């Protein structure tokens, strides 16, 4: 693909729009740096609702690794080339709504492609497009360094310190921007900026997102099927309404006697491994087939005998809490696309250590103290998200006691939110017809959202379009033992290259390979690797070191 360069000539062609101006400035033969800086500064300004607030040429930067971070990849700031950093906003229609803020990074040397980054949680933070994208190997050049234009948005609101992350949902325009409009509008702004800066539109457009960003990726395929050539959706929070309610239910059942302390979480994690670790033929402290393990593991075996208590057994209330987590959440009426439930969570990875959003039950479900009302900082993230969602999104009553909330009393609002937020439409025929390619990845030890929601969605696409037809443009992979953010087991894979090869070379991916890497530059050594199997296959041990992918094969 042709490499494009920011030049003063292209800036003048954009500003003046005449051949004479173009010829005169080519003759200047200015240095690349001077030309790029001029083009970059010339982007400032705007018309109508779109405003470019600043545009500055950034010098090349080196890779750095922080000592600490909320996630393994979050510790890494990749090396980036010279680029024009564009910051801007889109004014709201409702004067009470916040603007949509965005950042677009235009590399001096462009490969003709672009990559939009998705957000996370309830967003409210500007996604810069400068970090590693989801699942990305630590030792690979960043997308920007590979020549991609990269960009992201805050989705139309900014979360303020000390403020619940869902407050923005009280404003209709802000919530619709969060649901889908902001990603579309920023995508269109990015295309316009590329055309102004380089003199042409991008040849190929990609989207990569994880968690809420994964939902955004599926939203783009469903709502705006003509906008992207390749989409990667990791651990997507589809069936969003169901997730908020199921997460809240799991918090309610751990109030008081149902709460499970960290020592008991370790007890459960060890019991799951004892029941299922060796089922694939290896003894590697990893449950390779968590679907079969969910049926095999019986939490009742850990129930305390009459009169007993302590960290080596579970009370009746704790057993009930775990059974609730594993069980389907049922609505009394259907939501968007006919869904009336949310699948329960699975087993494995319960005791992955907690560091912010990294980890298993303690991070997401239980916290280090029982759920409080209102939610406290030491509660599980799912309770903080779910209870706040009930108050600000569904009931729209910040003072609501969540323990008194009844779904039936808010049916109209649930249906309204589901129509906006639930990226569960299985009809991807338009996306497929225009040549789009989709890769989904579920982490099977994910307690932020149920991996079974994504699996169910993929299977609904297969039912709608046919298995053979779906295989022409979509893939679902499952990674055993990996938590929501990519810890616990091998999780790193270059899905950007997978998408580019599929979209541009017609090379459809088969089973892949994931690595667990040491967060230590510059080598980022691989600690262990596994096959990344296409659903519904799992890694099965053959022979050799359990730290090497070649020791396993994918099979149902």
From TrEMBL:
Family: Belongs to the tannase family.
A single GO molecular function term of this UniProt record: carboxylic ester hydrolase activity
Alphabetical list of PANTHER family matching this protein: FERULOYL ESTERASE B-RELATED
Name of the protein described by the UniProt record: Tannase/feruloyl esterase family alpha/beta hydrolase
InterPro entries for the chain: AB_hydrolase_fold, Tannase/feruloyl_esterase
Species of provenance: Bradyrhizobium frederickii
Signal sequence interval, chain numbering: 1-29
Keywords, in A-Z order: Calcium, Disulfide bond, Hydrolase, Metal-binding, Serine esterase, Signal
